[in-house]
Design a protein that fits this description.
This protein has about 190 residues and is mainly beta. The protein has one domain: Porin. Helices cover about 10% and strands about 60% of the residues. The chain has one helix at about 1-20; strands at about 25-40, 40-55, 60-70, 75-90, 100-120, 125-140, 145-155, 175-185. The protein is elongated, with a radius of gyration of 23 Å.
């Protein structure tokens, strides 16, 4: 009899663990287009995508990729590529599954790769540094699955490389800029 009770208790516990629980996590995919501002230069085109997972729309993590072709201008072949992992805190005024707005703050760490090449003189410099970013924005959902995101972030490389490079006016190791972007949010 004791053995039967033990088996019933085990079956009941396994059954309770196996009961499906509604998922409260939310995944957002956001392709975006933006502009960078650094020093007195602005309007450098930037594009990329973010993937964000949030718990009840409040706390989440996101992975953000950005690419800025011709970042340094001046007839140089150049680009800046960013990959950042972030923590996001939001205030969901939309109950996480309907239309509404969601302001948020974000910050994190990642990598910043910068490359400059002068085709006329054959100079080429590339640099990969750890970087940080922080910012915020707002997501406005137009329905259950589509929304628009406006975002402003400050990105900064943490490197302190004092190596010589032929582009002495452009310090790749201390790269920093602001990025403003507008994206389509799919959930």
């Amino acid at each position: 009899m004791e053995r039967v009770k033990l088996h019933l208790i085990v079956v009941a516990l396994v059954g309770m663990v196996m009961i499906p629980v509604s998922a409260r996590a939310e995944t957002l995919l956001t392709p975006w287009l933006g502009a960078n501002t650094r020093g007195n230069v602005s309007g450098i085109i930037d594009f990329g995508a973010s993937v964000r997972t949030t718990l009840a729309g409040v706390i989440g993590v996101d992975l953000d990729f950005g690419y800025s072709p011709d970042f340094f201008g001046n007839n140089l072949n150049s680009y800046v590529l960013t990959t950042m992992g972030n923590v996001t805190v939001a205030i969901p005024f939309d109950a996480t599954h309907s239309s509404g707005i969601r302001p948020y703050l974000t910050g994190g760490v990642g990598l910043i790769r910068a490359r400059i090449e002068n085709p006329y003189y054959g100079y080429s410099v590339a640099n990969i540094d750890a970087g940080v970013n922080f910012g915020g924005g707002v997501i406005g959902f137009l329905g259950a699955h589509i929304g628009v995101r406006a975002d402003l972030r400050y990105l900064r490389g943490l490197g302190d490389d004092n190596s010589t490079n032929p582009f002495n006016q452009l310090d790749l190791s201390r790269l920093h800029f602001w990025r403003t972007s507008l994206g389509l949010v799919l959930r």
